[in-house]
Records
---
Amino acid sequence: MKLSSFYNILIALCILLIVGYFSFMIVEYSDANNDKICMQFDINLLDGGKTTLISETEISNILEAKNLNPVGKSFPYVQTDEIERELLKNSMIKSVECYKTISGNVILTVKQRTPKFMIAGN
């Protein structure tokens, strides 16, 4: 009987330590990104085939026009959802994923549409 109650106390203590550790981590690191400033904005343009429908420069210009360029902004003010919504308004873009990294960068991955056919003029 004494041995089983010892194991129950040991298990309860381990569970308490684990819960305490996770609580500490949440409180300690939840505000870690609030002090970071976006230093680099990487645009990864996934190829929509051989034809380029939109360039990184055009994407940057769209974001600049809407004041959504994250470089120099504090992480709480970087609106990744708004960046995605704004870029999806462009008919040349199929999908967009924007996220923040621990190192202070913002990564934007854009997938272009693949044209079914193109009309060539003289």
---
Amino acid sequence: MEINLTWDLFIIVFFLVIIAYSFVIGKNQTIKVILSSYVAILAADGVGNLVQKYIFGADPVIKVLVVHADNSAFIIMKIMIFVLLTVLLTIRGAFHIELYQDKTRFFSTFLTGAYGIMSAGLIISTILVYISGISIFSLNVVASPDNPINNISDESSLVRTMISNYNIWFSLPAIIFMLSSLFGSSEE
């Protein structure tokens, strides 16, 4: 049996790893990962845009730091900031998530799985969006023929789908969290 390593296979395996990890850490910690991811997405995009504009841009604030960097430097920087902040906020963040106790074990398991899927989709699609060079704030696309996402998306319909539906992956965890909070029981 021959297994070809493709981007689709990589994404599916990454999804399964994050979903399995969500069951290991539980529903509360998975929500913490999602919330940390939201903060990290905004911070990584903002810092990346500021660095690109003021340090590497046409009108740098400090003329001594004018350096010509290729687009991959910004892509790598945003991904590193995103991953680092997500991990640090999840592990050491000064907030604690304590959701209500679900009425049934099935519902609790279902929600843990749903949050795991949403967490995986949010993290993977964010990394793919950063690789594509899209800025979440300004919707600027780094148009470059050597952009690595061009080759990846040509080979993988899953990558194209995740990037084109990024807004769904970004908003769905918050919607699921809100809906599950509305229909859950509260601890008294």
---
Amino acid sequence: MLATRHGRPVVVSHGSAAGELAACVSAVGVADCSQLTKLALDGPAPLMQALTRRLASTELAPGGTVATEQTWWCAPTATQIVVLGEPDGGSAGGGRLWARVRAAAAESPEVAVTDHTAGWATLAVVGRRAPELLASLGVYGSSGDPRRAAPVAMRRVGSTSGLWLLCSDTRALAALPRAAAPALWRTIERAGRALGICAVGQEALARYELIRPSTGL
């Protein structure tokens, strides 16, 4: 079932939101969260630090993340910040988040801001058995241990490379070029079959956020 929110299409459910929620509680789900706003800021490391202090009230080391309200600020490297946030009042280029970032970056000509909302997809892996699935996919790196993995990093999963954000112990997001998303979805789905994976929509994700013990976007 599809719906439009803030001008962007979202998958509300794949048939049964209750069944999808049950899959997250007992096993693991995979979801399309491509409605998220996706921005990239590139520039010298000192300017990146200054911008995150202003926009997110903190500094980020490479591989670090911080959540503010419904937005994640991610530092894959010292010279790049990737921002993932819920739609907040407009399509690509028209939301409040984009306006805030653009206004802050405008004071530093050396900083480039790119809106990847249309060009990137975002997939979520969520649920009680998400850690098992993420470890099998290599998202935690060579150690396979989420406690030793950087909260955000570029990872190759199957035939696709993307930016993986570990939101919590039961949720991760992958941002990657939209054309590569179907291949990643198939890889996740194949790896998750033994764990009881289910495709889930936004209604089940929202309900799961209300009952799970961890916090995150």
---
Amino acid sequence: MSVQYVLTGLFESADLIAYRTASDLPDFGIASAGDANHLPQYLVAPASVRIAVRTVSQKKGGTRYAVDQLENPETIVFAPGGIYDNVAVIAGRIGSVHANDVAKALLNAFSRDVKKFRRVGSYFVGPEAELLWQAGYRLTASVGSPREYDLADA
């Protein structure tokens, strides 16, 4: 399936920032922040789907433009995560708030490869992440969290 990756967020312009493949994403596999909540996320949709942009009036005046799942039912969200500062692997995420056939198909396509990874608790750990983990890297959602919240073998 041909897809598009569109950066999510609240922007000053309604222009979409889109990519054709995951490998085209800027710094793919590198976490620019030590917290999964502060990393880029992307709507993934079939390439033929038009991504809706919502206008959001600001209390202090002006307008921002939201790119999210609210008006984009044929999407999933992909947050790649990655290596942070040579000390941690920040968790990625794949999910959707939608349960229509297109979103389910996208989620299944993305999950198919991930499910081949080793399952540790509710996470799937890929071979490269596992090697880094064995080398002493933290596997975590946030380097600001105590180590007891890091992923650990059960």
